[in-house]
Design goal:
Elements lengths: L6 H19 L13 E5 L1 H11 L4 H15 L18 H15 L5 H5 L14 E8 L8 E4 L12 H8 L9 E3 L4 E5 L1 H4 L3 H11 L25 H13 L2 H8 L1
Parallel strand pairs: 1-2
Antiparallel strand pairs: 2-3, 2-5, 4-5
């Protein structure tokens, strides 16, 4: 799920799960999530984590350390302004981009290997990033439409011409935090899918059903970023706006529908 810096809690939960897998299977090493999950996805901060675990094949420990570095570099507020909720965002997009690029350089020496593997299968021998991963973002000009899925595999709706760092920026371009990003061959402008799709599980389950249509059932692990606040609508305009924002970014309804 999305949730800003609270994404670290998702990783700690996942770490405990991987430790349990190690103990049950009697392994002498900590297994990587990409070795046990066929499909890893997320939105916003969860999208960055999905890229690290799925696209880059990182261990949870590596992901936690990299995530902390990205957060420290990216979430340094700009100089205070009169209007903090400016279109350019409260935090530096360049700092976020630099942090993500550094992570990609460290964990993938061939960042374009997914694109090249389609034309040269031998690429997998030197950069074996074959795990299926998907992250969500929405177009700035049509925020109430279905989110765009950026995937490591080809689909009929695939957005071509995007690098890893661009996808990470698109899924994390939270309104008021980071400015939108234009990416892809058509230069479409994206913001994160936190409004309406902060819990991406429903969309990702539908995608998994398309990709694994031959399977009779799917086992889904959905990890959130903590319990949300109780939403109450007050009597002032500000309280109403605040309540609407909380409702738009809530993950509860999706979780409840999947439980049902």
């Amino acid at each position: 799920d999305g949730g800003g810096i609270r994404g670290i809690s998702s990783l700690l939960i996942l770490e405990a799960i991987m430790e349990k897998i190690r103990d049950v299977q009697g392994l002498d090493h900590m297994p990587r999530p990409c070795e046990y999950f066929d499909f890893i996805g997320g939105t916003s901060t969860g999208g960055i984590i999905a890229i690290m675990l799925g696209r880059l094949g990182m261990s949870v420990d590596e992901c936690i350390r990299a995530y902390k570095k990205v957060a420290q570099q990216a979430f340094t507020p700009k100089k205070t302004r009169i209007f903090p909720a400016s279109p350019s965002g409260a935090f530096s997009a360049k700092a976020l981009e630099a942090a993500i690029k550094q992570t990609v350089r460290e964990f993938c020496t061939q960042p374009d290997c997914v694109a090249r593997r389609k034309h040269d299968p031998t690429t997998a021998a030197t950069c074996p990033h074959e795990e299926m991963a998907a992250v969500l973002a929405i177009t700035k000009d049509n925020v109430d439409a279905r989110p765009t899925l950026f995937t490591t595999y080809d689909t009929s709706a695939a957005l071509h011409g995007c690098t890893i760092w661009e996808v990470a920026r698109a899924t994390s371009a939270a309104t008021t935090f980071f400015k939108p990003i234009r990416t892809g061959r058509d230069g479409i402008e994206f913001v994160d899918a936190g409004f309406g799709y902060n819990n991406p599980c429903e969309v990702l389950v539908e995608e998994a059903q398309r990709q694994f249509s031959g399977r009779r059932s799917l086992r889904v692990l959905s990890i959130g970023t903590g319990l949300g606040d109780v939403v109450a609508i007050g009597n002032t305009r500000l309280s109403i706006i605040t309540a609407l924002k909380k409702m738009a970014t809530s993950s509860k309804k999706v979780a409840a529908s999947l439980d049902g």
